[in-house]
Amino acid sequence: MHKEWKFATKAVQAGYEPKPGEPRILPIYESTTFYYDSTDYVAGLFDLKEEGHMYSRISNPTLDAFEKKMAALEGGVGALSTSSGQAATTISLINVCQAGEHIVAASTLYGGTFTLLSVTFKKLGIEVTFVDPEAEEEEIKAAFQPNTKALFAETIGNPGLNVLDFEKFARIARDKGVPLIIDNTFATPYLCRPLEHGAHVVIHSTTKYIDGQARSVGGVIVDGGNFPWDNGRFPTFTEPDPAYHGLRYVETFGNLAYITKARVQFMRDIGLTMSPFTAFLLHMSLETLALRMQKHSENALRLAQYLEGHDKVAWVNYPGLKSSPSYERARKYLPLGCGGILTFGLKGGLKEGKKFMESLKLAALVVHLGDTRTCVLHPASMTHRQLSEEEQRIAGVTPDLIRVSVGIEDIEDIIADFEQAINKAV
Ligand SMILES: *Cc1c(COP(=O)(O)O)cnc(C)c1O
């Protein structure tokens, strides 16, 4: 890959570079294991002294190509694909944090992530303090403890659609000596590259825009290679690992320490592995990421403007609208567009919203976002259902809130569908 290639070129060309006579398109290496004729070589693979694939729980050539492309697009040094976005969040955090330690996270998170951190991590002995991402820097810093090991947030909050103040979060992470780990699912690297704004690790639910066509659940972790793991706070990176005969990650792998450790400790031991077929689909989907994100963003802005001008609509939230509290920040961090997700509420409220969703003909009511087809969802009764009313309020979920994932159909058809459904509901 040419380092100086621009985004869309990397999206098409990076990751897989066939040699003469090899398949033009990335093959699906549907093989659990790999053939060798030397026991010493395989022993070297086990000891991480040789490079190569050994067993597909740990690495696989199809996954490797997808990971290389994701790392290129986010501007990272390496990546690790996972079986889901939840798996990516889990591994990205337990790679730096263990029982008895602590994480600070923004309160405006995907409902599944909030439950993972507040309920399941607690069972694993990891405590999480949630902070309002709009709070003053000093207030967020006050949530840190001596055992805090990571700061976690989303580029665009789900479903509050608040754009993260990267400058503030990067400064807090730097001052506190912990990595800033960002869920960039809503923005994708086409619209925002958190590593360029001070983040150290980026994760995705590839299930959404990276796949883009609602086919496969998956996730990925990208390592920025830019965190000083030897700052004294991360002994598991600098002290010998007994599982590898006393290997020290920073000393042996340098700026690839984080992603290598995630793979050889946690992917090896827990096995939240992506299938080669999924990696094949994602590697190909990325070829059109730039085109798709342009169209999703353009359609969402048009739909948001239409809804804002509608007298039966109570409110609209989209970071690309001047009325959004995140408008200025979106101009700074999302200059190419704000993606395909918007939220709104109808006059009246919950009852009218339900009738609206059930009256749509083109847009479907599904638990999903980020694919080519326009879809709607009601977070209070669906994705954020497990949260208490107070937790929902903190996460930005009101009872009347309808979340729309705007697809890449012709915008006139999407608007016509919304128009007829609004008129049935209100
Ligand atoms: C969907 C989603 C996840 C979880 O990903 P899965 O692939 O469903 O496990 C995490 N973060 C965000 C922002 C999401 O939208």
UniProtKB/TrEMBL annotation:
GO terms for cellular component: cytoplasm. SUPFAM superfamilies: PLP-dependent transferases. Its cofactor is pyridoxal 5'-phosphate. PANTHER family: HOMOCYSTEINE/CYSTEINE SYNTHASE, O-ACETYLHOMOSERINE SULFHYDRYLASE. This is O-succinylhomoserine sulfhydrylase. The modification N6-(pyridoxal phosphate)lysine is found at residue 208. Keywords: Pyridoxal phosphate, Transferase. It holds the Pfam family Cys_Met_Meta_PP. NCBIfam families: OAH_OAS_sulfhy. InterPro entries: Cys/Met-Metab_PyrdxlP-dep_enz, OAc-hSer/O-AcSer_sulfhydrylase, PyrdxlP-dep_Trfase, PyrdxlP-dep_Trfase_major, PyrdxlP-dep_Trfase_small. The keyword Transferase applies. Belongs to the trans-sulfuration enzymes family. MetZ subfamily. One of its GO terms (biological process) is cysteine biosynthetic process from serine. Homotetramer. The keyword Iron-sulfur does not apply. It comes from the Bacteria. GO terms for molecular function: cysteine synthase activity; O-acetylhomoserine aminocarboxypropyltransferase activity; pyridoxal phosphate binding.
